[in-house]
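Ticket closed. Logging final result for Glyoxalase.
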Amino acid sequence: MKIEHVAMYFNDLEKARDFFVKYFAGKANDGYHNPNTGFRSFFISFDEGSRLEIMNKPKMDNLAKPLNRTGYAHIAFSVGSVEAVDLLTSRLRNDGFEVASGPRTTGDGYYESSIIDIEGNQIEITV
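Final structure:
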């Protein structure tokens, strides 16, 4: 058994798509739109088969996303090396994204950083 995909709602679907393509080498499909409900989505595919569905629909609640909450915590992307973690973290910081932590080695041995995406979601970058 495996997780087939993870899904997230975004207010700005195209900006979210571009973010995951630009920084995480995702490949977006052509998208889906249901004209009856206004629901729209893209599947972003990553190396080794993992996928992220990004979605949007009319009249979504835009609630606060504190880092210490129950439920969704973060998505982690493995970039392959300590140097790649440092490089991507630096690139995101230079492009104006908040770095919430790291790069650092955690108590359980992961080398990682954590950034905040275009709509306040936490994304972990690890070896």
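The longest helix spans residues 82-94. No further action required.
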